[in-house]
Give the backbone structure.
Amino acid sequence: MQKERVILSVAVIAIFSIVLLQEPSTTGFVPTKSYTQGLNIEVSESQRFRLSADTPLKFTSLMISGEVKGSGLTNIYLVAGDHRWIVFSNKQKQGRSVSKITGFATSELIIEPGEKISTTETLPSGYTVREGQFSNECADTCVIDTNLLKDEEAWLEVIVDEKTNVKISDIIFTVDET
């Protein structure tokens, strides 16, 4: 009986010590609001689009839906200050399939066409391009650190090959409400 108490006491002290040494942290809730906005933007040459709103941009995520027509490479980036995130690319490793997720509610984001850009990108070895519709794509923008978005505006940079057109039908985004 005495031996069992000692073993139980040692086990409780060991578990308690492990919990304290791991420096537990508190995970909090960050209030966000989700929006979907129809765009119907057609791009046949590389171009930037200015994103702005009546309030500062505090994106916590950004997704786009649309369609790629043609056999060239298409990359779409979110650019803010010195940061650049890929939102969508029609390149994929040969032999891989595409997964999809769902959208959100509605709000107003101001999207203005900007200058044409003369950027070209090449398809890496072992990759192929996919033509057709894409839905709710957010390669690097599924979760965005709002501390990195301090500007009043951001840019959607669309890079397309000469033999490719892309239509962006919807933009889906969440914003930090704090």
